[in-house]
Amino acid sequence: MQHRSLSTEKREIERLVVEAQKGSEEAFAKLYDLFVSPLYRYVYFRCNGADAEDLLTTIFMKVWMNLKKYRFQEHSFSAWVFRIAHNVVIDFYRASHLNQPAAPLDENHQDPKKENHSSNRTEQHMNREMLKQAIPKLKEPYQQIIVLKFLNEMENDELAEILGKSENSLRILQYRALRQLRKILNEMGVTEV
Amino acid sequence: MFSSPDYKEENSLAELLGNIEKPTLSWNRQEILKSKLRAEIRRHEREVSIEQEAWFVVLRQKLSEIAREVTLPFSKVFFLREKILAMLPSLSQRKNWFRFPSIFTPARAFAGATLALFLVFLLSTVFFAPSVTRASPISIISDLEGQVEIVRNGKVIPASKNLRLKPKDIVKTYEGSKATIHYMDDSLTRLSENTELRIRKLFVNPVDYTRTIVDLELINGGLWARVLSLIDEFSKFQVRAENTILTAKKRATFHVAVAAKGKAKVVAVQNAVDVSVASPKKKVVETTLLNGYQLDVQNGKTTVTPTKDTKEASETIAQNLEEDKVFIEEIISRDKEERLQKIEPPVFPKVLVLDELKAAEAKLVQAELLLDTTIPENAGKLLEEFDEIIAGVSQKIDELQKTDPVKANQLSEEFDRKLRNYKKQFVLFLPDDSLYPLKEAVADAELTLSATPVEVAEKKLEQASEKLLEAQALAESGKTELATDQLQIFNETVTEVVSETASLEASEQEEVVSATLEQKVDHLKLLEALSAEVRLELPPAVNAKEKRGVTLREMISKAKKDSLADVGEALAAVSASETPSVETLKKVEEIENLDVNLTPVVTDATLLQSTSTDAVTTNNTGGPIGVGAIREIKSDPFSGVTVITIEAKPSTVPLPSSVKPLP
Predict the structure, then answer these.
(1) For B347, which of A58, A131, A182 is closest by C-beta distance?
(2) Does ipTM exceed 0.85?
(3) pLDDT tens, residue by residue, B175-200
């Protein structure tokens, strides 16, 4: 299910959340159906694919266990869910000794190795594997923006809630995230963008 | 009259302020600021204008296309859904007992982190011994009625529920009172009235809680003992009563009473109990008491007879068995609760081998939750994943063995400990239980992680013993068909071990034969216990071929026959290459001297012969063969054929009147 339709179904989600808060597993199952694909994309691009299902299980378990703490007045439900997903992903990396995400690049990063320069690399087509390698090289908030905004098509108001930014500054961040992603992809040999 | 205000002071202040030099930006600074602002505006405009740039459009489009590709297959979505929903009932929703208005506020996160750090510090300095992950199991008074006392260090303490018992304690019940003791190995005793029990020893291996020894001394009165889940040869549950020592291994149920000085009575209710009695002439009589029989000891003289089937005795047994059921349910439910705590493990990237162990454990627990759902086949997938992780770990340990054998051995031991813990928890599951696949998965994992062919053979033989215990439990509840299946698996496993021995190197062969012989004693006792169960529970079939019980009987006979054949074949394998070692011959002697008192009457000695090329054959077709005496091992130096002669041992103990000889 696309995330855009999620925002249009906020009332339905609210109803399901209220029922799930009362312990309805059926309502929770429907929430699962709504969120499983966007959450899967979120963890897929941010962690090793082999662990995506384990991470999804953990996210849904945490959502269920913390559901009674959720308040509609404070945040949208999807923002709350993705915040939990974010914490699970961060825990995933923290617990690792070796599998740390690649160090994010700063704005003016230049790859010191000549062989990594786009001019020295075979031309590559952008595909999901390339993207999966590129995203972890972004700064943390840029990773979130690319995955939530451009891959999951989340609305700006929800994204602003998750990142704790105003919608205006979010707009600028989006451009910067895209520009940095383009730069990384170019360095990986992707010239079509 | 009002006078006009005098603003002299204010005017001079204004003049003073007017003369003060105003802070102004220098022209240079103004220009720098202006250019910075211009750059920022241009940058902002450029960022906004990139929406029109081709690369921006292409990149967004590509991202959307890729997003559409990244979806979980429907089957996985469904499987995951089932898995998560199955877990929900076990996961309580947390209430807002610790209420922070929002999880996103940094101040709250900071406060939470500070509190967490403080708690970790507190716990780490005060409570935790770093290497201990779980409290060592303890023995307690789990239930009591009337006046019950504990004598500890000469002082009398009134007993209460959940009171921890220690070695050297004496538990006393009086007229009309009774007490139940739950031991750290999950065994249980129920003390009758006017009973005095000394706790001699309560041993738990500090690094492996599945290895235990309970040693008790019944001074007066009587007790019911239920030994539930000992899983290895090391662990034992022992009760001394007068000059008799009763030893239960793995699983057994028995009643023991001390009537007067030098007089004790033991009734075996389930499986078998090893008994050793010291006579006044200091001669030790050793035997194995099977279910359905009783042993009377008077001044060192022993008499074994079928259990006297009085109404009172039957009622006592029935009532105790009923109470045991409740106890067993409690144990199973406690273990399940413990496993479910692992349901929310922190998800680790599998960097360390021990992370893999955690991942494997999580799969096992998740599979457990799914086995009770409407779609248990999903559990199968998880158990396959569990197998895969274990296989990967085994490979890693093998590789590590070449570079860092100490570390490899530590890891191997850690895995082994974990698996033994699960083995103990799953030991009571039978093939018709929904959770039985977990038991099998752990058994397979044990084999996968075995480092040498000898270890594999030992594990397989242990697992074969377990099949016999399962067959016993199934036969008890009248599920003879399933019991027969387990016996069949037992036969196949032992035969497999023996046939695999031939392909091993000579030194390994000797070790496997040694292990086979060691387990053989256990196997033969268990087979006898099973025979006793079948004789007691199943009426003699009139139309033998049509009764399921007959199939079970035939299978027991076959298992006993094959069991002895295996001994012969295994010995033949060793004898073919070299003379059996002293140790091996001692074990042969042990089998030879094995006295299971209640072997069915076999009046004619039955001769079995084995050669190094053929399996042992017998002239007894279908009839029961008791424990045999190995009379001779002859090796023909010319033909290279080894002949082993085994003579079946006739029993001296009469069968119960209700029991008819087997067909």
Answers:
(1) A58
(2) no
(3) 999 999 999 999 999 999 999 999 99
